[in-house]
Design a protein that fits this description.
Blueprint (H helix, E strand, L loop, with lengths): L4 E2 L2 E2 L8 E2 L6 E2 L9 E10 L5 E8 L13 E9 L5 E3 L29 E6 L10 E2 L9 E2 L7 E4 L11 E6 L4 E9 L7 E10 L2 E10 L3 E10 L15 E2 L6 E8 L2 E7 L6 E8 L19 E8 L6 E11 L1
Antiparallel strand pairs: 1-4, 2-3, 5-6, 6-7, 7-8, 9-23, 10-13, 11-12, 12-23, 13-22, 14-19, 14-23, 15-16, 15-22, 16-17, 17-18, 19-20, 20-21
Length: 330
């Protein structure tokens, strides 16, 4: 939590008694709510072969001006010094960790800092038999029931499973959100037969916190795109602002789906050709996909994910084929 601290106590006997550092916490942002690093805790102290001291610890980086951390728990490191009377202190002084620092250690490779304006673009193709390492799926020890890279070579095929709110078997494959500003894009071929089948692009925290752009079908519009959003509380009668916004899309045609996240603002778009994009007419709150937000179950510390998924609540395993997935961090 936001009151986390790293406190040091020492003893000459493992079983005590222990003396607590009279200077107070070694690391904390508890009293500095505007500091970029928050929830600092769970520290470990290490000494390098060269004799230098460091502390590694967990923390989070909330969106500026908020107490919502869509990137989840992260790891941090700070250098320490030892006082004349044997206590540890941050080399930078005080208990507040530096938001950024460079560390050079003998025997390690040199790290090059990427320019702050550089864009990280990763395009994942599905031409291999192995799922790229950045992707994860939910729970199942039998991923062959959820997806295949062999059934249609060059595509990641998802087999429709339970609803996106299910705690059991979901066909959902996603990677972590690692930037406050990012764009993710995919292309899919999916021909749902009815309203119980859907597939698409999802920004996901857990079964009660997600934003989902999906393809489905109903008797009124036919094959269409729509947005499903669960904001931290599962209510059977919930009606969200985007309810009823259904966009008819062509039959038998590949669709490109995209999401743009800028801090707390999340917008979905779609395209029939990958060039001309149509923004879905609703802006969603991306900060809800965090440990601290929402009324429902939370605090898994994973941070938000972005990925693809497929549901078939009729139990027939209707497949959706995804040609690629692109993540662009800004």
């Amino acid at each position: 939590g936001y009151e986390h601290v790293v406190t040091v106590a020492r003893s000459r006997d493992l079983e005590g008694p222990y003396e607590v550092d009279p200077a107070g916490p070694l690391v904390t942002a508890r009293y500095s709510p505007e500091h970029p690093l928050q929830r600092t805790g769970h520290g470990d102290i290490v000494r390098t072969p060269g004799g230098r001291l460091f502390i590694v610890f967990l923390c989070s980086r909330p969106l500026p001006g908020t107490r919502r951390s869509p990137l989840g728990r992260e790891s941090a490191i700070q250098e320490l010094v030892e006082t004349d009377d044997g206590w540890f202190r941050l080399k930078s002084g005080g208990p507040l960790p530096l938001p950024e620092l460079e560390i050079d250690l003998d025997g390690t490779g040199s790290a090059k800092r990427a320019p702050a304006t550089e864009v990280e673009v990763i395009r994942y193709g599905f031409d291999s038999d192995e799922l790229p390492d950045d992707f994860q799926w939910l729970r199942s020890p039998r991923p062959e029931r959820l997806f295949s890279l062999r059934e249609r070579p060059g595509n990641l095929r998802l087999h429709g499973r339970e609803s996106i709110g299910s705690f059991y078997e979901q066909a959902l494959v996603a990677r972590r959100q690692t930037h406050f500003r990012f764009r993710a894009e995919t292309a899919l071929e999916f021909e749902p037969a009815h309203f119980q089948q859907m597939a698409g692009l999802v920004c996901y925290y857990n079964a009660s916190k997600f934003h989902y752009l999906y393809v489905s079908r109903d008797e009124e519009v036919g094959k269409h795109l729509a947005v499903m959003s669960c904001e931290g509380e599962i209510l059977l009668d919930a009606v969200f602002p985007e309810y009823g916004n259904r966009v008819a899309v062509p039959e038998g045609q590949k669709l490109h789906l995209r999401v743009d996240v800028d801090g707390a603002r999340l917008v979905f778009s779609w395209s029939a050709d990958g060039d001309a994009w149509n923004e879905f007419p609703v802006s969603l709150d991306a900060s809800l996909l965090s440990d601290e937000a929402g009324k429902g179950e939370g605090a898994q510390f994973t941070g938000a994910f972005v990925g693809i998924c497929c549901q078939d609540m009729a139990g027939t395993g209707r497949p959706a084929d995804f040609r690629y997935f692109c993540y662009e961090g800004r």
